[in-house]
Amino acid sequence: MSALASPVPVPQEVAVHEGPALLAGLTDGPSLAAHRGRYGALPEVGLAALRELIRASGLRGRGGAAFPFVRKLDTAAGSTASRAPGRRGGREAVVVVNLSEGEPGSAKDSALALTRPHLVLDGAVATACALRAREVHVVVAGDRPAVRESVVRALDERDDAVPIRQHATEPRFVGGQARAVVELLAGRPNLPVTSWAPEAVAGLAGRPTLLSNAETWAHVGLLVLRGGAAYRHHGTDREPGTTLLTLTRPGFVPHVHEVGYGTRLRDLLPPGVHGHPALVGGFHGSWATWPTLRAARVSVPGMSALGAPLGAGVLLAPGGSCPLTLTSRVVDYLAGQSAGRCGPCHNGLPALASVVRELVHGDADGGVSGAAGRAGRLAALVTGRGACAHPDGTARLVRSVLAVFPDEVAEHAAGRCAVEPVGSAAEDAGEVAS
Amino acid sequence: MSRRLRVDWPSCRARGLCHELLPELVDLDEWGYPVVAGEVTDALLADARAAVRACPRLALRLTDR
Ligand code: SF4
Ligand code: SF4
Fold this sequence. Notes:
Bound molecules: iron/sulfur cluster
CATH architecture of chain B: 2-Layer Sandwich
Strand order of the largest sheet of chain B: 1-4
Largest interface: A-B, 16 and 16 residues
Shape of chain A: globular
Oligomer: heterodimer
CATH class of the largest domain in chain A: Alpha Beta
Structural class of chain A: alpha/beta
């Protein structure tokens, strides 16, 4: 089966906005000279000092799960210390910079690679040195050539004490999943496999593998270069720091913004999408209505409490076009991206996609409640039953569309859509009126 | 800590032997793949171990999380 194209193409261009911390001084350009001119040489930090910097900042991973980064670091450091008997030199750690945004709606790690590659690399190198890691791997998305070129150029400029190797994922939604990346590094197919232990305990070749996305490493880099006070200068007391967000509108170049936590979300949304719902967290995310978006502040716990977790910071805003039609196209695409390894995902996602299609196109067997019920049951059935969280994320999206748009789902099932098709006069009027 | 039966999904080929050996814990979905419910209690431990050994794809494991 040939996979359906993503309703939002993988971005080849990104509009990157000047920001308060990671994205400060963009006009300097991405070169190492400009980077060192701004931040100075990368200081050497011991593991204890690095740990304290990260712990005091409260830094959470920016790949979507928002896991406290200090815990990941501790796990990797602890696993390094526990030497396997008979193995000389213990279990040296491996550091991985995951730049492979498999999510087409996301461009924030691409933005960093294009504008701030040395901040990302400094974070990874400082950590690798503190852990006395064996090597650093930088993994880019195979279908974002400009990102790869920028990373290669940056690596050519550097001369680090630890070897850095660059790799490219297969162009596939789940190609950037942590275990799929470890498989790629190990020379095996770039697909997720069952994880019996966290990567930080046993990842590449069984070594403790500290793998994180580019944004997390860039924050570590800035912590090392500028210290913890500079980090806490932004954000709120309870949630210090800044975060990157990608605003993706179908038909537009994605925009990447850096904002302090606590910023009003609506300040980031262009007038053209005001008054309309948006998909928060990308293709595996949740829909939020305009009243929710209007009241929301950029916050990990805050957005979770609103039922629209920030995830990796993607805001997919279709403006005035139909959110149900978009969801159906996303689920079709996701079903084709399952890589077919795990039975429940391989069978369940296409079945789920077809029920969603029936609902949206108004030819649902057994009426709307029957089809909605089937969609809910299939979503529950696939959840937790795969080597990776792809079925869970797809199910989340389907549950969200059913929960957030019950009236629209009923209208569609009856063969009506209240929203004009994309690019219609109504939408253009909306751009002006809002 | 609860003991659970976990499936290595890329390995499982829906042979359904696990369901035959451990119907208390393992159901099958409409495609024949196992649906594992709940915790492996002490009473079920021996049967669970038997299912792990019997799986022709070595796709089952007992884990502590
Ligand atoms: S759960 Fe789905 S996407 Fe993930 S590895 Fe299995 S088949 Fe592939
Ligand atoms: S016995 Fe093994 S291969 Fe067969 S269904 Fe159960 S887990 Fe899958």
